[in-house]
Structure prediction request, 731 residues.
Amino acid sequence: MVTAAPIARANRRLTLRLLAVTAAMFGFGYALVPLYDIVCDLTGIGGRTGIISEATATTRAVDASRVVKVQFVATVNSGLRWEFEGPETPLEVHPGKVYEASFSASNRSKRPVVAQAVPSVTPVGAAAHFNKIECFCFTRQRLEPGETRAMPVRFVVGKEIPRRIGTLTLAYTFFEAEPASASAARRAAASDGIGANG
Amino acid sequence: MSAATTRDAHDDAHHDDHHHHGPEPGVMRWVYTTNHKDIGTLYLVFSFLMLLLGGLLALGIRTELWSPGLQFVEPDFFNQLTTMHALIMVFGAIMPATVGFANWMVPLMIGAPDMALPRLNNWSFWLLPFAFALLISTFFMEGGAPAAGWTLYAPLVLQGGANLPFAIFAIHLMGIASVMGAINIIVTILNMRAPGMTLLKMPLFIWTWLITAFLLVAAMPVFAGAVTMLLTDKFFGTSFFDAAGGGDPVLFQHIFWFFGHPEVYIMILPSFGIVSQVIPTFARKPLFGYESMVYATASIAFLSFIVWAHHMFTVGMPLAGELFFMYTTMLIAVPTGVKVFNWVATMWRGSMTFETPMLYAIAFVILFTLGGFSGLMLAIVPSDFQYHDTYFVVAHFHYVLVTGSLFGIFAGVYYWLPKWTGNMYDERLGKWHFWLSTIFVNILFFPQHFLGLAGMPRRVPDYAVQFADWNMVSSIGGFGFGLSQLLFAWIVLQCCRGGKQATAEVWDGSDGLEWTVPSPAPYHTFETPPAVR
Prediction:
């Protein structure tokens, strides 16, 4: 039989190790956030779209033999008094060719509002092949009371888009980026890095 | 268990010299106690109170669902009932009850004088009343209790009222309590076993709790992280789950279920352990396939970390992801099947008797298996799209949680109650409790399968008229089951007050160190380690 002192020491050592595991797992919970981003970017889950430059886009060959239908959806998050519309008719596009679609937003409230559009592309698997060259969602948009502005998006559908996808939907939701609350400044600061997913 | 045990002859004599080590008189005994038996009792009493409270909320739900239309409660209060029922049952009733068993039985079954970290043990328990006082107080706040479901999905949960920070702090406290309890149990089992008790001689209850404790240490901190993110999203301007700030609400579901799936095994594994002690005793045969039981439990624990997304098949996942989570989920049926096979094989050609613990254990095996089968149906992606968020899911998880975890706990209470109190419980009333509970629990939950398959969604206070009949049947079962538990309280109370004196062995076929100490178990046991051959 072991005497009491070594047991107490062994207990303390094991307890500390297990506390370290606990702390590590708490950290792992937070590590899931960037991990999730990486997985989403790799697989296109969550409708995340890619960005390419105008130069890259124009040097690509166009696949004129294929037509993909692109539909547009425009929504405004509750609490934001904006009107937001997209093209009503779907656009038929050739993979590899650059197109432009124009959305339009107007501020119906009585104060200037800064808002951020968050894009999403469905179906699953399409988003990775949907590349934007220029988009109103790359930056936050500020509209004065009553102001209406055209919001263009220039995009190209990648040639590698799977054959099974004949129609894809590009959806934007506008969220107020600077709510008139006390945490407004902090929230805005926290969302500065947003362009990366746009 | 294969370890043959001998009664420690010094044990009784030893205790006569140590009267000053007895329990402190008065109420403060329970506040200051570091004795594993006292703390085990505290846990069990607390969890029973929470069971009654959670049951009361469930009866509120069943009252409203008695017939279609809104009769008794507002829809928002109904959502508070479902949310709080789940939080209280999961974190207040089932988990503390199993920790109570661990506190009482782990030192007794491994021949240790107490838990390894007795003061931490006291603190782990006493955090719980404060945690639940915080949680329950939200009922009386403006806006009421949390109403977004126990899964606390963002962004819905962030739209709640003042309750959110209280609920989150309550969850933090419960999490700290259960992680500390788990650490204590691991350290006790790994460092404090009597000489000669090798890992593969440990009773299966000890094995299942060891593995449960590791699950707790690995999963609870992730949950703590998830609710902390909710808190900072709501009050400190972060955007983990807020799409406007670049976050993603689906991320919350992933983090939650990364904790949530191990959590369901945290709730069931201790009951697996209890049943694995009870069945050999009343079949009068050693447990069939002891080692395969150990490996099966460990496999289940490992698999529980890679199946979480089967709770969220419908959020939009690539086909490859759905297939992965479907197949890993179905894989869990293999080690679980091994366990069920071993329990049945233990009973095969045994000299079985059917005392109350055995009745509960047999009902556990049958009804838990039934709940497992409906789980397999839910694991199949195409059918899950049909069953998702219907009463079929409710029926499934109540079969594994009530007739699984809770029935295992009942079996354990009847099994060890004579050891705890020194008195036999009233066997006739125990059988009444068993039959009433078993019949009513099936009246309560079986019709919910039909409701779910017919398309009734969960978490609704009102429903289409075609669901009326089975809902009424289910409510009748609910009231019957709930009231039957008052009988349980009476039986336990009677047993504490007196009754036929229990022997040290209590049961004919009992085997293990806990049966070598007198009944009731003295305040201090195994101060000299017993010999294990």
Summary: Residues 215 and 262 of chain B are 6 Å apart (CA to CA).
